[in-house]
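Data availability (excerpt). The following record was deposited with the supplementary files.
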Amino acid sequence: MNTVIDKPAIDFTAIKQRQQATWASGDYAAVGTTLQIVGETLAEAADVRAGQAVLDVAAGNGNASLAAARRYAKVTSTDYVQALLDKGRARAEAEHLPVQFQLADAEALPFANASFDAVLSTFGVMFTPDHHRSASEMLRVLRPGGRIALANWTPAGFIGRLFKVIGAHVPPPAGVQSPALWGTEPHIVELFGTQAAQIECQRRHFNFRYHSASHFVSVFREFYGPTHKAFAALDAAGAQSLERAITALLDELNVAGPDSLVVPSEYLEIVVTKH
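Predicted structure:
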């Protein structure tokens, strides 16, 4: 007789609470602002136009939000970490850009159906624990004919590999799908295909530019939530081992030679047009 053993249900609420604490740790804005060019490129890929209602999901400190506002769109910037929204608001005010900031969970967006002409996310929604729920929410709040535009790190790119290195030292929650799946075309089709009139994917690269590998490790250890939390979870020997592994990865991928650090990191730029 075969015995069927039920798998324990994944506690997405508990996972999300830990993730929220992770992204609230350090100071993501110190790293996030270096990625502004991705927000600008994504706004162009989405063909954001003046007067359109645009939602930035898991916006962090607002790279895509500011890019859309510069194009005179009516922008709502959302994240589940208030401190990041505050950083985004300060940036918008400094540039006199009218952006609405609102605390919101990407898996339960507090907006009516078909509220937006475009929905954007740069390296944000990919980190939600329930991929199908967050994708469904983005589709729900988007009007027919509207566009979802995403920038997601790929599994084989630098950040995808960095997360594998971190996961080898501090294992991720059991049963949760990898965020890097959002950087693969088949997963995007699985998430959005049933409601998509068109899905366009293009591989792009963002260059991380730092003084050296040790400079990168120092910045990411202090400011980037996932790295910050990983180092904090390890004892001294474990932290040294993680630092060596990250440094080896940086040295492998550095294209700048011994006097600087330039590491290209592949990401997938996605534009989904809703039926």
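Summary of structural features: The chain has a mean pLDDT of 95.
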